[in-house]
Amino acid sequence: MAQALSALAVGALVKDTGTLYNGKPIVWKIADKGHTGYPSGSVTLITEKIISLKCFDAIESGNSDSNRKSYGNNRYIYSNLRQWLNSAASAGAWYSAQHSADAAPTNANVWSNYNEYDAEAGFLAGFSTNFIAALLSTTHTVGKASVDGGGTESCVDKIFLATCTEVGLSGDVTAGSKLALFSDNNSRLAYPTAEAVSKSEYTSSSLSATQAWWWWLADAYASNSCNVRNVYSSGALDLNDAYSGYRGVRPLCNLSSSILVSDTADSDGAYTIIWNRAPSAPASIDVPTSVRGGESLTVTWGAATDEDGNLSGYTLERQYDGGSWAQVYKGINRTYTDAITKGWTSVAYRVKAYDSAGAESAYTTSATRTVINNTAPTIDGADSDLGTKTGAFAQAYVVTDPDSGQTVTVVEKIDGTEKRSFTATSGQSYSFNVTAAEWVKLLNGSHTLTITATDDYGGTATRTYTFTKNETEIELTLATPLAADDMITKAIMSVTRQIPAGATFTVEVCNNGNDASPTWEDVTQAVTSGSKFFLSNTTKTADAWGYNFRIKVKRNDATGDCFISSVGGNFE
């Protein structure tokens, strides 16, 4: 696993196994975190040890200033050392003149010909591509000599030297602020690496990897043009000529605090940098436009990509009523169903991707949705079975909407077919009427009545009733007999029908249909065969003769469709 660089304490050691100097990985020490004036969110590193012995700046034989002509230039922005530290050029190619009198640190231009470095590659040439890409440009303030106007000046670099102020020493000016690593002389002690000692042309019994040594600072000594401040081997403040090639180099840099390092230190006591690229932000995030309090919604988001192929999942956060963000989901899925609390006024979501090394993408944030706090209407009672019905009937119900001022639309359906739709008044009683005309169209068996009430915001309530129609007899007659001028003696009739086998079909007619007790005569056989039939009755009690018929069907135990669709005929 991994942890952020910022999780390590000041003083912890860090290294990138691909960033080398003198063939060995450079070991860095955390000097501060979030240092004032440095890039926001950065961690400041300084090499644990003195990595090399080099002059600050070479003598400048063409300089009109006699000190700089003999002892080198102490102005940091023009120094050979600053240029070398920030160059990734190959051997012998890092140097270019920084001013008209500038000179390279050749053998002839350094003190006693010790440790010239013009033929070296630039310091950054040994850095890994990832480390170079991660270096943060830092605006650095350093002290100037009086001959250059005194005070301070600033420059922007990726690699730089500390100032007196930054290491906790009182130089000629205040340049920057103290780094957390430095507190006293002991904290400033630095030892050369074994490679720095072995490669140095300057030899001394006191120069070894086990003894503290001098190391350069960035500040010029204010009183002359050639002396540069440095840390003495005791940790105290010192100064020396710029061209002295036996002073140590201890560079600094700034990295982002989110860079990952190993969870444990290696044999050098250093945490290894893990060059992991964060995944891309999810491509999109979708939240339904209609959000209702007391209900659920489903949030979906687009996929992220990861150049390292170690995308692990997504973190979804919610914000309601403009408050703080809170995590509601973490995992590999790209959809989440969330419960919306009734009473919220607004809600928004944001999502980020993360990988197996703990690196995270930027957030992708949704639009803020207004929460509709609507209460759906209600229909009294409960869904129920009304049992067996034998004819037209009515079912009463009451629709109520607790949200005042809304329009409630009610739709009644029989077996899924709309019967009527109307605007209801909350609290008023209504009746679902199954009329006689509708009743006769229903087949025997189970049927369903549904009542659905819908408010302005789509809140709905549905009440469902079931019933069974089970009619076993049909009796059909005219409500008003057909008028006749005289006694009817003969007639013919046709009945269009579907009568299943086993059912009983009977047709009766009368010629005194206006009487209180008509004389019915069975003509079933004649109707069934399509024959004319003769009526035998010759009496009436009413004022006029009238023709009527009575058709009866008894289902008995028969099954299948059973109906009469039309009746026709004539009489005389």
Q: Compute the number of structural domains.
A: 4
- Separate helix tally: 7
Q: DSSP strand (E) fraction? A: 35-45%
Please list the strands of the largest sheet in the order they lie side by side.
1-14-15-2-3-4-13-8
Tally of strands: 40
- Low-confidence parts, pLDDT < 50 over ≥5 residues? none
Terminal Cα span:
108 Å
Taking all Cα atoms into account, the compactness measure Rg is 51 Å
Which shape, going by the Cα principal axes? rod-shaped
Structural class: mainly beta
Q: Helical percent range?
A: under 10%
Structure, explained:
- By secondary structure, the chain is mainly β.
- It folds into 4 domains: 255 residues, no CATH class; 88 residues, Immunoglobulins (Immunoglobulin-like, Sandwich); 92 residues, Immunoglobulin-like (Sandwich), CATH 2.60.40.2820; 99 residues, Jelly Rolls (Sandwich).
- Helices cover 7% and strands 40% of the residues.
- The strands form 10 sheets. An 8-stranded mixed β-sheet has the order 1-14-15-2-3-4-13-8, with no helix packed on it. Strands 17, 19, 20, 22, 23 and 24 form a 6-stranded mixed β-sheet that branches. Strands 26-32-31-28-29 form a 5-stranded mixed β-sheet, with no helix packed on it.
- The longest helix is centred in the N-terminal third of the chain and has 6 residues.
- The protein is rod-shaped and about 160 Å long.
- The termini are far apart.
- The model has no long low-confidence stretch (mean pLDDT 96).
